């Protein structure tokens, strides 16, 4: 396959303008975004993405999980398409680039090929995966997971948010449930551009992360049950304080993760105490423990030690405990051919680059199970993400999209 010409580049201004335009939808309170999945804001962002894709001459597809597919025809209509995308949904205090850069980077590839009149043998399909974040509906990467056969659609439709609203009902409510069977689409390859969401690339002064692996993830929801009681009149020995038990368990979570330093990580981002009243000892605490590591046996060890430590704590305090696995995937090794296409692209374009393991989960981690897959990463300021202050530079965005363009076009094979 002929490699694309070195001077083949995307339009960085247009990509940046599109990022800023999309960021106006579902604004946060501190300059970032709150465009959570299946909200009206998500629907608005989807409509804008669809309009842009149609303006670029794409035909649109939509499956029964709301995954969006914008197809640019190839010279060989029978050839399996090269897919390129990420997610438009954000955290409640999310940034402007997490996921969005990958979706709009895919669109920018199509816009650039249109500008230059370049035809590829394989069609190219820009993609938006529903509910990558897993914040409103656990688990993360829900819809790419259904697409890859990791979850059933019925199970996904039954997932409930904190208000008890079901995923399937909300997808219908916003009018973005398609007819296509989920996972019926076959791919020649899948590429995802994403900000690193960590400090490595910026610290090492690298423009591009060539993602060889993704670390594995485990989400265990823990429910501790004690007894509501008065914070004033209840003697200390009589208390069954679920909040205190949770605090002791979270101390153990930190200790367990540190015991596998430097690569393992652990914390709880979701924490609810009930009834959450200033003068009531919490009778219940519900929290999700997030463990991650590039090594599966480390994840398994952390999960097992969590249960043993937590059981000991609640038994000693006379409380009850339940565990529910609400998310997880094994560490991922991306396709060597696709990874090489990313690395060769960075080299050809003269961008500094380094191999990297993804700390965060991505739709690519599931799609890698059904198609040759690789990721391109760009740095982010101070490695900060899942924070409204998330920031990247215009040059980083352009470099990442240039590399994505070359990797996609080389895989899709230029014909004229
Ligand atoms: O949790 C993750 O790693 C991703 O940001 N959803
Ligand atoms: Mn993301
Ligand atoms: Mn995210």
From TrEMBL:
Q: Which Pfam families match?
A: M20_dimer (PF07687), Peptidase_M20 (PF01546)
Q: Which keywords describe this protein according to UniProt?
A: Hydrolase, Metal-binding, Zinc
Q: What's one GO MF term for it?
A: hydrolase activity, acting on carbon-nitrogen (but not peptide) bonds, in linear amidines
Q: Report domain Peptidase M20 dimerisation positions.
A: 215-311
Regarding protein family, the annotation reads: Belongs to the peptidase M20 family.
The residues the record assigns to binding Zn(2+) 1 are 87, 98, 194
Q: How is the cofactor bound?
A: Binds 2 Zn(2+) ions per subunit.
Q: Which cofactor does it need?
A: Zn(2+)
Residues that, per the record, bind Zn(2+) 2:
98, 133, 386
Query: Matching CDD domains, A to Z?
Result: M20_bAS
- Superkingdom of source: Bacteria
Name of the protein: N-carbamoyl-L-amino-acid hydrolase
Q: Which SUPFAM superfamilies is this protein grouped with?
A: Bacterial exopeptidase dimerisation domain, Zn-dependent exopeptidases
């Amino acid at each position: 396959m002929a490699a694309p010409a070195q001077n083949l580049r995307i339009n960085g201004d247009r990509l940046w303008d599109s990022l800023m335009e999309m960021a106006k939808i579902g604004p946060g309170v501190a300059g970032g975004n709150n465009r959570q999945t299946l909200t009206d804001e998500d629907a608005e962002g989807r409509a804008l993405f669809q309009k842009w894709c149609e303006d670029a001459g794409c035909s649109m597809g939509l499956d029964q999980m709301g995954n969006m597919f914008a197809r640019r025809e190839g010279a060989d209509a029978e050839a399996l398409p090269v897919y390129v995308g990420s997610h438009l949904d954000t955290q409640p205090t999310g940034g402007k680039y997490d996921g969005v850069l990958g979706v709009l980077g895919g669109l920018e590839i199509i816009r650039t090929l249109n500008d230059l009149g370049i035809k590829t043998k394989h069609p190219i399909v820009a993609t938006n995966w529903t509910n990558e974040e897993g914040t409103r509906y656990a688990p993360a990467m829900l819809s790419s997971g259904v697409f890859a056969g990791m979850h059933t659609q019925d199970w996904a439709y039954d997932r409930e948010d904190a208000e008890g609203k079901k995923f399937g009902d909300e997808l219908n409510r916003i009018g973005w449930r398609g007819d296509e069977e989920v996972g019926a689409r076959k791919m020649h390859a899948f590429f995802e551009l994403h900000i690193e969401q960590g400090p490595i690339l910026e610290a090492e002064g690298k423009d591009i992360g060539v993602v060889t692996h993704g670390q594995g993830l485990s989400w265990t929801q823990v429910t501790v049950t004690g007894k509501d009681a008065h914070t004033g009149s209840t003697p200390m020995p009589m208390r069954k304080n679920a909040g205190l038990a949770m605090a002791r368990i979270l101390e153990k979570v930190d200790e367990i993760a540190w015991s596998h330093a430097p690569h393992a990580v652990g914390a709880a981002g979701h924490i609810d105490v009930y009834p959450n009243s200033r003068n009531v000892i919490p009778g219940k605490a519900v929290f999700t423990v997030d463990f991650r590591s590039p090594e599966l046996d480390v994840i398994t060890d952390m999960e097992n030690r969590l249960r043993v430590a937590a059981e000991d704590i609640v038994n000693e305090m006379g409380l009850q405990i339940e565990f529910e696995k609400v998310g997880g995937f094994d560490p991922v090794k991306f396709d060597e051919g696709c990874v090489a296409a990313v690395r060769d692209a960075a080299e050809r374009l003269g961008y500094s680059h380094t191999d990297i393991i993804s700390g965060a989960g991505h739709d690519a981690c599931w799609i890698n199970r059904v198609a040759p897959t690789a990721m391109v990463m760009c740095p982010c300021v101070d490695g900060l993400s899942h924070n409204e202050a998330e920031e990247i530079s215009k040059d980083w965005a352009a470099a990442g999209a240039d590399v994505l363009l070359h990797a996609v076009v080389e895989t899709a094979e230029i014909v004229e």
